[in-house]
Design brief:
The complex is a heterodimer. By secondary structure, chain A is an all-alpha fold. Helix content of chain A is 51%, strand content 0%. In chain B, helix 6 packs antiparallel against helix 9 and helix 8 runs antiparallel to helix 9. Chain B is elongated and about 90 Å long. Classes of the chains: A mainly alpha, B alpha/beta.
Chain lengths: 47, 302
């Protein structure tokens, strides 16, 4: 069981690291509540 | 504006590409699930042989040469070791030879998949018949009587994976695919962690105390669930941060299309085709928690 737990942990850490590093580059901002989500789709504008 | 003009304005190349991408995901979904699960058969199943030294080597060779190569047999020192290795998932079953008689014992673990346990029993009984011996099956980690075919653990794992993926997707849809700064990224990670803990405990409550479908440690199962939800959620958040809305599709590809069938589903890993056996252990999906650790019970069948 140790192996699968290590695999899951590795994915979790990798995901968190990528999310954090990408955010620190700061190319896009969180939308304020009630505004259109800036998901990169047509018409969406990063806020 | 005419309808044709409206169509030209509405159907952008990007939207068309996204629809084509979703179609590809749909076809991959079908190919992956059917490819993995349409013809399950045991191949190279790790299997222990407990027998006196002079018999053991011959038995291992004979079982290794069975038509279709269903078993990957290896000698094991004694029955206690075989039981421990089964519970630890190092092997999926074991043959315990009685040197003083003609009735041997097959150890299996239906908690890890009833289909595999039944297949191993059938294979060994047929092999034993040709040696004019008989075998009785002993289930060292039986599935709960409320867990038909040992499938509950798979559905629990699917629920955890879907929950992690959906939470990450909804965060991206509601607040943007990429956090604005380090603090927002930490907030999202914190939200995902709290969600994962709630999801892990909730799943364990439903499958344990509520439905009595999976015996074992409640908190151990909760922890496994929380880690599963968190891992799937964080990898989905990362893919969204890297690729925007396309990341949702990539997460589906990784977790749902590749991950779920290679987790075994109705059939444990040793019954899947080589491709899914190879990728399964490396993917972010919950290990089937169906083999209760140190199960105090065992069930024998003639």
């Amino acid at each position: 069981m140790t192996g699968p737990l290590l695999v899951l942990s590795a994915w979790a850490v990798a995901g968190a690291a990528v999310t954090l590093l990408t955010a620190m580059r700061g190319k896009e901002r969180d939308a304020t509540p009630g505004t259109e989500a800036p998901t990169g789709g047509a018409g969406s504008t990063p806020v | 504006m005419t309808f044709a003009a409206e169509v030209r304005k509405a159907v952008t190349p990007r939207a068309a590409l996204l629809v084509v991408g979703v179609l590809a995901l749909q076809l991959l979904f079908i190919a992956s699930y059917i490819g993995a699960l349409h013809n399950p058969k045991p191949t190279d199943v790790p299997f222990g042989v407990v027998a006196p030294q002079q018999v053991s080597a011959r038995l291992v060779t004979e079982l290794d040469g069975l038509p279709g190569g269903p078993l990957d047999p290896r000698a094991v020192a004694d029955e206690a070791t075989a039981r421990r290795q089964i519970l630890d998932r190092e092997i999926d079953g074991a043959l315990i030879v009685d040197p003083r008689g003609t009735r041997d014992t097959v150890l299996v673990a239906s908690g890890g998949g009833t289909v595999l346990a039944n297949s191993l029993t059938k294979i060994i009984k047929q092999a034993e018949l040709s040696q004019e011996r008989t075998a009785r099956a002993v289930d060292v980690a039986p599935a709960s009587h409320q867990d038909f075919d040992g499938l509950s653990s798979f559905y629990l794992a699917v629920g955890w994976c879907v929950g992690g993926y959906l939470c990450a997707s909804i965060l991206a849809i509601s607040a943007g695919s990429r956090p604005a700064n380090r603090e927002r990224a930490l907030i999202r990670t914190g939200v995902m962690a709290l969600y994962a803990i709630a999801g892990g405990i909730g799943g364990a409550v439903i499958i344990g105390p509520v439905l009595d479908a999976l015996p074992g440690s409640f908190w151990g199962l909760s922890g496994l669930g929380a880690l599963t939800v968190f891992a799937v959620g964080m990898i989905t958040l990362a893919l969204e941060a890297l690729t925007g809305i396309v990341g949702i599709g990539l997460a589906v590809l990784l977790v749902v299309i590749a991950g779920n069938p290679s987790a075994g589903g109705a059939f444990p890993l040793p019954m899947l085709p080589d491709f899914w056996r190879a990728i399964g252990p490396a993917l972010p999906r919950a290990p089937r928690p169906g083999r209760p650790a140190r199960s105090p019970t065992s069930a024998a069948t003639p």
